[in-house]
Write a structure and sequence with these properties.
Blueprint (H helix, E strand, L loop, with lengths): L3 H4 L1 H4 L4 E4 L8 E4 H11 L4 E5 L8 E5 H4 L9 E2 L5 E8 L2 E4 L5 E3 L23 H4 L2 H27 L15 E5 L16 E5 H8 L3 E3 L5 E3 L8 H9 L15 H10 L4
Parallel strand pairs: 1-3
Antiparallel strand pairs: 2-6, 3-4, 5-6, 6-7, 7-8, 9-10, 11-12
């Protein structure tokens, strides 16, 4: 699967400074003074520096809010390239970002492969706006939020499905149009877990509904637990739920499911 940021670089670059750097060369890269100035004039500090690594690795990218590293981009560390253009040079080693001559190394691990920090509000994407939108500032604002959320959830889905090898973690169903990247802690409940692939299960759409509505959950061994009292359930629903009681999920390949998320679901979503 190709790098998500690489595939979306054209759209992302409208609102962010996008660079490509090789992980084999410590992500060495340069940032041009005129480009940084362009984004600052247009967005203030509300843009991200997106550094794309291996284009064949889906999550090998950094999405760093500019304000987090702004202090490293000082005039005194600028140098000229072969065309006499002003630029800063930088590298990343072990998730530590260093701009040449600053002597400062910043931990950017939280921004690795994490689209939560992407500034993707598409201020220039006129094709997304209807005539009705353009007459209403509030509608435009909501439309931007919708676009932003869609991009982020797309990244979450890709990571979760890949984590379970594009199979339902309970049934092995592999028809992708029937698979849901199901949030354990719901999207609306906690911002910090929205794009964490450890907060996602790949579920067949039917069982996603059961999980989302609290008819099933999981114990700490990641085996299905079902309602203790099923008398109120219709017979077909009772049979479908009982069919997977005690079933363990398939082992994820990249991100282990966090037990604190499962425990949250049992306490707050599962109807017991």
């Amino acid at each position: 699967m190709q790098n998500w940021a690489y595939l979306n670089r054209s759209e992302l670059s409208k609102n962010n400074y996008v660079r490509i750097a090789s992980p084999k060369n410590n992500y060495w890269l340069d940032f041009y003074f005129n480009r940084i100035s362009y984004y600052q004039k247009k967005y203030g500090d509300d843009f991200s520096i997106i550094i794309i690594g291996d284009i064949d690795k889906e999550t090998d990218f950094y999405a760093i809010p500019f304000r987090e590293v702004k202090d490293l981009f000082v005039i005194g560390t600028l140098a000229h390239d072969s065309r006499n253009a002003l630029r800063w040079t930088a590298k990343i080693i072990n998730h530590r970002f260093e701009v040449y001559k600053t002597g400062v190394k910043k931990d950017i691990n939280p921004f690795y492969g994490n689209g939560e920090y992407l500034i993707t509000i598409a201020q220039d994407l006129e094709e997304f706006y209807t005539d009705e939108d353009k007459e209403n500032e509030y509608a435009i604002h909501n439309r931007k939020i919708e676009i932003n959320g869609r991009l982020k959830q797309s990244l979450f889905r890709r990571m979760v499905l890949k984590n379970f090898e594009y199979r339902c973690c309970l049934t092995e169903i592999r028809e992708e149009n029937l698979l849901i990247a199901s949030h354990i802690i719901p999207w609306s409940s906690r911002i910090t877990t929205r794009l964490d692939p450890s907060n996602g299960l790949c579920l067949f759409s039917l069982y996603d509904s059961f999980f989302d509505k609290g008819y099933i959950s999981f114990d700490d061994d990641l085996r299905v637990v079902t309602l203790s009292n099923t008398k109120s359930l219709s017979t077909p629903l009772k049979e479908m739920v009982e069919l997977i009681r005690g079933k363990a999920i398939r082992k994820p390949v990249n991100y282990n499911i966090k037990l604190e998320y499962i425990q949250y679901h049992r306490l707050n979503i599962f109807v017991g």
